[in-house]
Specification:
The protein has 385 residues and is α/β, with parallel strands linked by helices. The chain has 15 helices and 13 strands. The protein is 43% helix and 18% strand.
Length: 385
């Protein structure tokens, strides 16, 4: 317990990059009752959202130069020691981890330090079918191990709960489903100026994707999609928001396909709401997912979504009602669906509005925060018995 009997609550995340899980975590931290909790956040040294975290009132931020995403046994051990020391020094009562590396190290440090309540949120599991067999098995075993001393596994989609149980990670009683929360007013905007900034004219149709340039998101398929659609509708512009390790490969693919005039690379943007307002269709080409926040944001902006049928996407994208689902790597099928949508303005508007209405009743920020706080209270009560 902290001063005034407030609970010292520590969040752990590997890196405050500009990703959906990280944005949701900061949204949670902003909303948690600071009369009941002293808030701490332990994370890596760098990240585009570090300044956002520093701006949150009453949050104590601790950055660790050893906490990084790649597996590096020496640095991972030092990060574990730092975490353990931080937990002991600050008399932490609840540890709530997010992301895979932080989930493993944070929960292990919490167990060693004797923390009463240990929680982990699964923003998509660390293992997937595209990994080498031995690496996949290693990640599954590590998740099974840490689940043994985790009081609750929070999942944001029913898919992730089923996947965890299928791989014998914890028991069904350890799981709690707490969906993400979206601020609808933030995305329900119209900003014509952003189209001018992006070099779009009034007649241009715009297709966009927001994603980190990494294998999971498969941005190469977005470029291939642009090439196929350009054969039938040369007036369509494709906007790719993000950056990452595949940047050079993406640039080479664009140049090799002669799509420099059709594809706009914006880099990371902090005004996703404005970018979405400029789009006619939102696309996601991921190979695997938990529940992508960008899809929820596009739906909140009343944009029709075409996404690959991965993870929990089908829990929000009801095919032909709130969007469309395509199999991963089916670029031709994606192109056909996209062309038909681009030619039917009224259908795009209808489905976009249906998606927005569906989301309003199912993914509320206040619900996410309230359900999480209720979980904290329940677990603290159980730990005190």
């Amino acid at each position: 317990m902290g001063p005034g009997n407030k609970v010292n609550l520590l969040y752990v995340v590997t890196k405050l990059e500009l990703g959906g899980a990280q944005k949701q975590l900061l949204s949670l931290i902003r909303g948690v009752n600071k009369e009941r909790f002293n808030l701490f956040l332990f994370t890596g040294l760098e990240g585009l959202l570090v300044e956002d975290a520093l701006a949150i009132p009453q949050l104590k931020l601790q950055r660790c130069r050893f906490l990084k995403r790649p597996i590096r046994p020496g640095q991972d051990f030092l990060a574990l020691i730092n975490l353990y020391s931080f937990i002991r020094k600050n008399n932490i009562g609840i540890v709530h981890t997010h992301s895979s590396k932080a989930g493993f190290l944070g929960r292990l440090a919490a167990k060693l330090a004797g923390v009463k309540v240990i929680i982990h949120t699964v923003h998509g599991w660390s293992f997937h079918k595209y990994q080498p067999f031995f690496l996949r098995r290693l990640f599954i075993l590590s998740e099974r191990l840490t689940a043994l001393f985790t009081d609750k596994l929070v999942v944001v989609s029913s898919f992730d709960r089923a996947k965890g149980l299928e791989n014998r990670i914890g028991t069904q009683f350890k799981y709690s489903l707490i969906p993400y929360g979206i601020d609808y007013a933030e995305f329900d905007i119209q900003d014509p100026s952003v189209r001018r900034e992006l070099g779009l004219n009034k007649r241009d149709l715009a297709v966009g994707m927001v994603a980190c340039f990494k294998p999971q998101k498969c941005p190469q398929d977005f470029i291939r999609l642009a090439g196929l659609v350009n054969r039938y509708m040369p007036g369509v512009k494709f906007i790719l928001v993000g950056d990452g390790i595949l940047r050079k490969r993406i640039e080479r693919l664009i140049a090799g396909s002669h799509l420099e005039e059709r594809i706009i690379l914006t880099g990371w943007r902090r005004d996703i709401q404005r970018i979405l307002s400029a789009l006619d269709v939102f696309v996601l080409t991921s190979l695997w997912e938990g529940l992508p926040v960008t899809v929820l944001e596009a739906m909140a902006a009343a944009k029709v979504v075409i996404a690959t049928d991965t993870g929990g996407v089908r829990e929000v994208v009801d095919n032909r009602k709130t969007g469309f689902l395509i199999q991963p790597h089916d670029v031709e099928g994606l192109a056909k669906k996209l062309v038909s949508l681009l030619m039917e303005n009224e259908l795009r508007i209808k489905i976009g509005r249906s998606a927005q209405e569906y989301l309003k009743y199912n993914f509320k920020t206040n619900d996410m925060i309230g359900n999480t706080e209720a979980l904290y209270a329940s677990l603290m009560h159980r730990a005190s018995e």
